[in-house]
Design brief:
This protein is of the alpha+beta class. The protein has 20 helices and 10 strands. It has a domain of about 350 residues: Cytochrome p450 (Orthogonal Bundle).
Length: about 500
């Protein structure tokens, strides 16, 4: 009883002091939230819901009580969650310069980011602009993307062979391997054999999936680093293993460039090697640090970011879309008919054909609306005290935007839980949707504003191209007596709790 009395007294005193200071300085209050204990925050109240994914059901219930802007406290750190699309637009687009920073790194993020020398974690400023501009100009520019068209056709062949060889295996394994084939080629400029790609995949996935065990390090960092030192040790070992796999590929690229210089390669080497992301990283110099080149650790972190961002999110989205096509055979039939009407017997051409496949694009958009790979964007931080929805946002507060909740807003989407691609066609509530959210946010699977995912265009191309080829090549049928389960499970992305298993029949035999 004494302990509970002290807890309640602490809450009362903290609340009284906060109200006193707000009344005194006339500032708007912080967004509302559940009771908290000084230094410990909402931890006791939240129990096990520490990570963003686990906390989502809690936030839904809090929204009904407190509204679309909520404050939670993780230790002494304030996190503000926004579930309203209009407020998200105001913060990320209208006030983009103020809301585009990243929170100060904590131990869990430092292991990923080589002290913030990656695009996703770099503070809003010159380094972030340099790294982002390099990625967009050297790899994501339309001319560069087009140069990988033959590679995409090669990967489609790899994927088709895998599906034929393992028709009863969960499709996501084949999807992920195919995306690794493509992203490894784009990153390192070389077609690797299956064994080498598997090594990269295992190293990447091992560290990525272990990351969820590191979120606890964000709470009272000085204490948690001691309590959970074995987790830090394991994470460092996984990181080292990842470096041991990736650095030989980076060094091979360095040797290739030294060997060839500006000379024209022979025909076989031209087929094997392409301009890569690593090529661009080797050219980077950081003006603010005396024009130095990137270190090995920084290059590994950037390559890791490139592979994870392009593989896991696309693989997750692809599995959700194909699961809905298995579940909704009429929608799959319409996609197949559209593909046949556009391409006939010839190969699918990316830009020209994708532009004509309106229903296919609607299916992709509906998949991203209903099942965004990430239910939150990466946390933002504000560079100066601001205001949102009538509430105060302190300088350096951590801002989180609830992507999945915005895409289920009944004010925008009719029957939001249903999978209806027609909503993105003429006359639908999603007609003419701007997926960047620059004019208005109706859904934001790629984020919005200055920190929007730079690979948005590439991701949309990959999803359209792979879905088109998968539906053209195979008929995707439900396994007899087994319904497709759309239950979710949080990992690095939000994946299917029970991975998709379908009865796959080649179209020529269907």
């Amino acid at each position: 009883m004494v302990i509970w009395f002290l807890i309640l007294l602490s809450i009362f005193l903290a609340t009284t002091i906060l109200l006193f200071f707000h009344a005194k300085n006339g500032k708007p209050p912080l967004p509302p939230g559940p009771p908290f204990i000084p230094f410990f925050g909402n931890l006791l109240w939240l129990r096990r819901s520490v990570s963003l994914q686990n906390i989502e059901p809690v936030l839904r219930s809090l929204r009904a009580r407190y509204g679309p802007v909520i404050t939670l406290r993780f230790g002494s750190r304030k996190s503000i969650f926004v579930a309203d699309r209009s407020l998200a637009h105001r913060a990320l687009v209208s006030q983009g310069a103020t809301f585009s920073d990243r929170p100060a790194p904590v131990p869990s993020t430092q292991l990923f980011s080589a002290d913030s020398y990656v695009i996703s974690s770099a503070p809003y400023g010159p380094l972030w602009r340099l790294l982002r501009r390099n990625l967009i100009a050297e790899i994501l520019h339309p001319s560069r993307v087009k140069s990988f068209s033959a590679s995409r056709r090669w990967v489609v062949g790899v994927l088709s062979d895998h599906l034929r060889a393992q028709p009863d295996a969960p499709a996501v394994e084949s999807f992920r391997f195919a995306m690794f084939c493509l992203l490894v080629l784009m990153c390192f400029g070389e077609k690797l054999d299956e064994e080498a790609i598997k090594k990269v995949e295992i190293a990447q996935r091992g560290f990525l999936l272990y990351a969820s065990k590191l979120t606890v390090l964000s709470i009272l960092p000085k204490i948690s680093r001691l309590v959970f030192r074995n987790r830090i040790k394991t994470a460092n070992e996984l990181r080292q293993r990842e470096k041991e796999v990736l650095m030989p590929l980076i060094r091979a690229r360095i040797e290739f460039r030294k060997r060839n210089g500006d000379q024209k390669n022979d025909e076989e080497e031209e087929k094997r090697f392409l301009h890569s992301y690593v090529d661009s990283l080797l050219e980077i110099r950081i003006p603010e640090e005396g024009g130095r080149a990137l270190t090995e650790d920084e290059m590994v972190a950037l390559c890791t970011e490139f592979l994870n961002a392009g593989t896991d999110t696309t693989t997750t989205a692809l599995q959700w879309i194909m699961a809905n096509l298995v579940k909704n055979q009429e929608i799959q039939r319409r996609v197949a008919e559209e593909i046949e009407s556009v391409v006939g017997e010839r190969e699918i051409e990316e830009e020209e054909d994708m532009e004509k496949m309106k229903f296919l694009k609607a299916v992709i958009l509906e998949g991203l609306r209903r099942h965004p790979p990430g239910h939150f964007v990466l946390p933002h931080a504000v560079t100066e005290e601001s205001e949102i929805g009538g509430y105060r946002v302190p300088k350096e507060a951590v801002m989180n935007f609830m992507v999945a909740e915005m895409a289920l807003d009944e004010e925008v989407w009719k029957e939001p839980m249903e999978f209806k691609p027609e909503r993105f066609l003429e006359g639908g509530e999603g007609e003419g949707l701007d997926v960047t959210g620059s004019r208005e946010i109706k859904m934001m699977p790629f984020g919005a504003g200055r920190r929007i995912c730079p690979g948005l265009g590439l991701a949309m191309l990959h999803l359209q191209f792979f879905v088109a080829n998968l539906v053209r090549e195979f008929q995707w049928l439900p396994v007899e007596g087994k319904e497709v389960d759309l239950a979710e499970k949080p990992e690095f992305t939000v994946v299917m709790k029970n991975p998709l298993v379908a009865h796959i029949v080649p179209r020529t035999k269907a």
